Amino acid sequence: MAKNINSTWITTDLILNNTKYGEDEIVCIMTGESIDLIEAVAGVAKEVHVYDSSFHTLAQLQRYLKAKNVKFSHDVYPPNEPVYDTAIMIVPKGREYARAQLMTAMQALKQGGDLYIGGPNKGGAKSVISDAKQLFDDCTVLDFRKSHRVAVSTKQKTTEYPADWGAKAYEPQTHTFDTPLGKIEVVTMPGIFSWDELDDGTSLLLEHIKLEGVTSLLDMGCGNGVIGALAAKQVEDVTMVDDNLLAVYASRYTVEHNKLENVQVLASDVYSHLDKQKFDLIVSNPPFHKKFDVNTHSAQSLITEAKAHLNRDGRLMMVINAFLKYEDAMSEHFRYARTVVDNGKYKILEGVV
Hints:
- The chain is built from ten helices and 18 strands.
- The chain is of the alpha/beta class.
- The protein folds into two domains: 164 residues, Vaccinia Virus protein VP39 (Rossmann fold), CATH 3.40.50; 180 residues, Rossmann fold.
- α1 runs parallel beside α2 and α4 runs parallel beside α5.
- The protein is elongated and about 60 Å long.
């Protein structure tokens, strides 16, 4: 985690030392990753509009940032109209997602507006700068330090999404997944975990899931909604939640596409926005990465807070990478806990309250 904080600090410093914006400008920041960046820009610019895919990040920023000229959007991408004088982008994880940010930033910039791009080389900065050069016809590296760089592109005209980039990454796409519970069409998009294929962990979970006697199910970290949508064909009441706003957006489309009327989809940081709802079964393939660092916060919260959201004899089933050690936590917080399966790459843990 410290490495990621240090990387964010270097990127922030590079951007602040090389960006130019005036006190009459409206600035778009494409990520809430750096509160220092937002505060510094807000101290100069007329308005700052912040976008991010994380519900938790936006909630935290709104709690701590009280500047009246900072506005937060729960749309992941800025509007398709030229409203910004300057845009700032910290290189995200995933090239397709970065391309979506590049294109939507271009659409949201006024003519002559600048897009500043900063990030570490190992995080894909060189590739994103190359893509910006293709999209804007130019992208100039302004500075670099400790394997990090910052570059700028200026909008001279609005160009089309490059054909060699494939489908527009900022628009939902329909994919058919072949799962252990049958085929299903999901609506998905870059920026969601395993957005274009069924990952092995989810497949293993679907192979071993037991839905007999389950009337209410929570799909925690629902992604594009594949688990919850499949379960909804057998379970009376299904709730899907995710911290990733792109996942929430896609899952709602998946529910609509499959004509499911017994599903609700919510934005929530683990259980934060579930109030006192309880379920017979909680299923999850929790994330263990934040950008390029291992992060187990979500999985820990999933286990430790599960009891408050399970009915009597309710179960938690979670699939995790085999190297992660949650068995002790499961035994501590559940009346009965076991390893359902361990194939050397993934394992499924189950706990009963």
